[in-house]
Specification:
The complex is a heterodimer of chains A (about 90) and B (about 290). By secondary structure, chain A is mostly helical. Chain A has one domain. Chain A has 4 helices and no strands. In chain A, helix 3 crosses helix 4. Chain A is elongated and about 80 Å long. Chain B has a single domain, classed as Fic-like fold. In chain B, strands 1-2 form a two-stranded antiparallel ribbon. Classes of the chains: A mainly alpha (about 90), B mainly alpha (about 290).
Chain lengths: ~90, ~290
């Protein structure tokens, strides 16, 4: 009885692990292929800046929706200030 | 249970500080980004699933605790002269809408090069939130634009392989004179609107999503243009010789070319009508699959 139970548990667990770790190979190869070659440091810095700009744009967009009279450029500048100024709490990068 | 005072429509809410408004959207964005970052490559979308809209909204409107994450409780709102989903049915309709969105996003995940498909889902989701459901009292547009941005971003290479979350379509609203628009609507004239709002208006009139799709594609092209402009400035100065960098930039250029092609085809009328889909027909058999 115990043996049957144990073998059952082992079988279930191995099936579970197999299901969990066996992935379609081609898909992973493709992803690994991309990930093995990292971007250059300059490029990463550039993309991070672009991320900040897009964040500031969407924040400025929300400001303009609630306060339509604000100048768009001013809203954008304020948002960018809030993101980049570390002394302003609550807006730190996640 | 919400207290009676919160539900009382006669309450005058004070205008929020400008910083709080920006902070709310940034919180919602970072919530979506974190959820998307946490999901494995081969699993179903963790972000796009039931509970998405209230999850975003309670962050966007965090400065009004009584309204944040709460559905509207009246049926007085009209969009382009048409009644919306009744507030009593919102719970079920929003659930079905989110199920629809989840299915679409899981399908899109299988075909990362399908830009047109992503645009179609983004426009349909945008119009579903603002034009059909309009689930919240305030902040529907912000929620819809965040959702559209993340729908478009899901399949971009910089997010999938390099984990950079560059929002593709920051649709900056221009100055809008709402009184003027209302006056023109009441006197049966067509209002003068910005491209983005005009597209939304046209979709509401003809029930055809192509104008909004075109507006989103155009503004994505503009944002890629700005990106490439910045990149070219830097490229002259420093030089990006890394092959992975060059590959990424080539992918982004190709995306821009495809988007321009889509926008032109829509302008020339080469695509058939893209009717607003029925979001509420998801069956449980489809969900299981």
């Amino acid at each position: 009885m115990t043996l049957v139970l144990a073998s059952d548990i082992i079988l279930t667990y191995s099936l579970y692990m197999a299901e969990r770790f066996v992935r379609p190979v081609d898909f992973y190869n493709q992803v690994q292929h991309e990930q093995q070659k990292p971007l250059s440091r300059r490029m990463r810095r550039f993309l991070r800046e672009q991320e900040l700009i897009s964040r500031a744009l969407i924040m400025a967009d929300s400001i303009l929706e609630v306060f339509p009279d604000v100048d768009p450029q001013e809203a954008f500048n304020q948002s960018l200030d809030q993101i980049t100024d570390p002394s302003k709490k609550g807006l730190k990068r996640q | 249970m919400i207290s009676e005072t919160v539900l009382d429509r006669n309450i005058h809410y004070p205008p929020p500080p400008m910083r709080q408004v920006a902070l709310g959207v940034d919180r919602a964005r970072s919530y979506m980004e974190r959820t998307m970052r946490a999901e494995r490559i081969d699993e179903d979308s963790r972000l796009f699933k039931p509970g998405l809209l209230t999850g975003i909204h309670e962050r966007v409107l965090f400065y009004y605790p009584g309204l944040a994450g709460q559905y509207r409780i009246n049926d007085e709102v009209q969009v382009v002269g048409r009644n919306l989903v009744k507030h009593r049915d919102l719970n079920q309709y929003v659930y079905l809408f989110e199920r629809w969105l989840q299915n679409q996003m899981n399908q899109l995940k299988q075909e990362p090069d399908n830009i047109r498909g992503a645009l179609q889902v983004a426009t349909a989701a945008h119009f579903g939130i603002t034009g059909e459901l309009h689930p919240f009292d305030d902040g529907n547009g912000r929620v819809a634009r965040l959702v559209a941005n993340f729908v478009l971003m899901q399949n971009t290479d910089e997010r999938r392989f390099h984990k950079f979350f560059i929002l593709p379509v920051p649709t900056l609203r221009e100055r809008v004179d709402e009184l003027e628009i209302r006056r023109r609507l009441e006197s049966n004239e067509s209002p003068k609107l910005q491209p983005y709002l005009r597209a939304l208006y046209e979709v509401g009139e003809k029930w055809d999503l192509l104008p909004l799709e075109q507006a989103l594609a155009t503004s994505w092209v503009q944002s890629i243009d700005r990106f490439l402009g910045d990149f070219n400035l830097r490229h002259d100065k420093d030089g990006f010789n890394n092959p992975t960098d060059q590959k990424l930039i080539a992918v982004i250029r190709r995306r821009k070319a495809r988007l321009v092609q889509i926008a032109e085809s829509i302008a020339e009328g080469n695509y058939p009508e893209h009717k607003v889909p029925n979001f509420y027909t998801t069956k449980f058999q489809e969900l299981a699959a």
